[in-house]
Design a protein that fits this description.
YbaK/aa-tRNA-synt-asso_dom_sf, Prolyl-tRNA editing enzyme YbaK/EbsC (Cys-tRNA(Pro) deacylase), four-stranded antiparallel β-sheet, five-stranded mixed β-sheet, 179 residues, 23% helix, YbaK/aa-tRNA-synth-assoc-dom
């Protein structure tokens, strides 16, 4: 079923909630499309995209990265998750900053991203993020038939169709998000 899995052995995500972070497991339990996601264990030292893809034979073009952005205006801080293909970068200072109505936007500090998401740095995924965060998806991500994303921990990856990501709470497809 998963043509992008390379040497990985994906199993239904709902059957192996022990492989994902607690917020991801909670989200999967409540998703109507949970049966369309798979999970696989990986070597946590190979979680970073380039090393992961090279080691497991996964196409870089089928891998999506999720980054947490903090937008500030005065004392107010707004967070968003941005999901773009690994072959692109999120336009944080343009599209994301404007979407968050922020004067300044940047990647959230690692400790903030980890504590607020309940996930491990390098494994943060759009599945299971705080309900008040927008999940901004590039059109390429939303249209992808299959993608590999983080599992909320460095030791796993989720396999998911892009249309499932587009149905996540707070998900928005944003033109121009990826460059």
């Amino acid at each position: 079923m998963w043509t992008i899995a390379g040497t990985l052995t994906p199993v239904p995500a709902i059957d192996r909630l022990d492989l994902v972070a607690d917020p991801v497991a909670a989200a999967l339990r409540s998703m109507t499309d949970a049966d369309r996601l798979a999970v696989t264990a990986i070597d946590a030292s190979l979680a970073d995209t380039a090393e992961f893809c090279a080691h497991y034979g996964v196409p870089l073009s089928a891998s999506a990265n999720c980054v947490v952005v903090a937008g500030k205006r005065g004392d107010a801080v707004r967070y968003a998750a941005c999901v773009v293909l690994a072959t692109t970068r999120a336009d944080v200072n343009g599209v994301v900053r404007k979407r968050l109505d922020a004067r300044k936007a940047s990647f959230a500090p690692m400790d903030e991203a980890v504590s607020l998401s309940g996930m491990e740095y390098g494994g943060i995924t759009p599945v299971g993020l705080p309900a008040d965060w927008p999940v901004l998806l590039s059109p390429e991500v939303a249209a992808a038939p299959e993608l590999i994303i983080g599992g909320g921990v460095r030791g796993s990856k989720l396999l998911v169709p892009g249309d499932v990501l587009a149905k996540l709470p707070g998900a928005e497809v944003v033109e121009g998000l990826a460059r």
